Amino acid sequence: MVFGMLTLAGFTFAPQLADLPDQKMWRIDRTADYGPFQDAARGRIDLERIERNWEDVLRIIGSIHTGAVRAYDVIRMLSRDGRPTVLGDAIAHYGRIAKTLHILRLADEPSYRRQIKSQANLQEGRHALARKIFHGRAGQLYQHYQEGMEDQIGALGLVLNALVLFNTRYMDAAVVQLRAEGFDVREQDIARLSPFVRHHVNMLGRYSFLLPEMPGGLRPLRDPYRAET
Question: What 3-state DSSP class applies to 202?
Fold first, then answer.
């Protein structure tokens, strides 16, 4: 269902699949000969089911695009007791097309796998930073869903984005200064910089929401080799 919703919304959903040889693929024609993929393509895509619900599917996707409904509310609405509704099932059948193509690309294109691995590393860096920021229980929510829980996650996202912005601004300033001082700053090294670094951030102590006075915009960069005074 997630493959279907994201594909229809114009996004590319490309997750890593650790158990790639065991992944199930789907076919449209039961009688077609898929050669080496004959056994792997053991599922079936029901195009008629998609066509019957197509107008409602487009309304759902359009509502998400316009912000009339939230995506996670739609996912909850499209399933009952762990099983998809008729509309949810139609979206899932559409998603099987995208997932099958994704599996085939994973198996056939090394560059596609590298791209997904790089994206996964980026996401894991973000999750690691979020776990560091999140106070209590190592960043895990254990209680059942209740009204307003989204605000808790939203607040975490706000702090995380502020820290990413802080890191990005100061890393850019550091690169500019290094180049101005004549250091050889290579583009391939810059490409490996991560805005999710956190060893320099003290997560404990007192929090202040008062903006400090910084007439020059950014505070002076610290020389890591100079002794603290």
Answer: coil
